[in-house]
Amino acid sequence: MKQTLIVATSRLIKLVANITKVISYPFHWVLPKMRFTLPEQAAPLLKDGKVGPIPRIIWQTNFTNRVTLPVYLNYLFNRLMAPRFEYRFMITEARRKFIGEYYPEILPHYERLQIGAAQADFWRLLVLHKHGGVYLDIDAHQIWPLSRVLGDHQELYVTTRKGELSNYFIASAPGNPNLARLIERVVENIQENNKSNVFEITGPGVFIEALNLNNIPTVSYRHAVHQGSFTNEHFQYIDKPEGKWTRQQVSTRVLSDAENPKQT
Description:
It contains 11 helices and 11 strands. By secondary structure, the chain is an alpha/beta fold. It has a single domain (2-251), classed as Spore Coat Polysaccharide Biosynthesis Protein SpsA, Chain A, CATH 3.90.550. Strand 8 and strand 9 (165-172) form a beta hairpin. Strands 2-5-3-6-9-8-10 form a 7-stranded mixed β-sheet.
């Protein structure tokens, strides 16, 4: 019964989200330069309620904090679905500063990543390992109250339509040994430099390879979080001509040479 309700709710959310996405085309046609600012930090909307093992923090990142209307509506919706969670956001420069401060031994490996999405992949593991909380991709949105999805879990991972692990939603208490294992695997991939795409070097491929589905708590995307209902590639990368990582890696190597790191 509960799962049926969640699915029905998710369909309603998707319908409303897609309507706002359609409306956003004429909005940005009339106001092509209009952007909305995502806050670096925002306090919870509500402050009471039960606190579980996973800290009440939502983490997000993007190449800029100045975003289009659909991305901003996606952010607002997530805030409403998790009113007791603090919100924290980092742009490219802030991610590097964080890693330099808390994981200086990893910074040289991180700096070899030449595509922003790969850097974001690596950063999300490190920030959750250090502080804990919930990571959401910039186009991901909840379909059920976040506190109810998390329950009393120490960690929680999302599975895709294919039943595989992904990394657009990760929830964890700080100091998680599984996150440490994923971090170690990403470092190994960078050092070995025998893979050529973001998915395998830093992305979901690392989760699929390093974690056993039978040994970790997971939730289907159908019952927790969806992607792309409010926004799409056009609205996400409207100010980034090189576009999504899938396009970037065609012309840009994911990894630089070890002795000549390049920033993006």
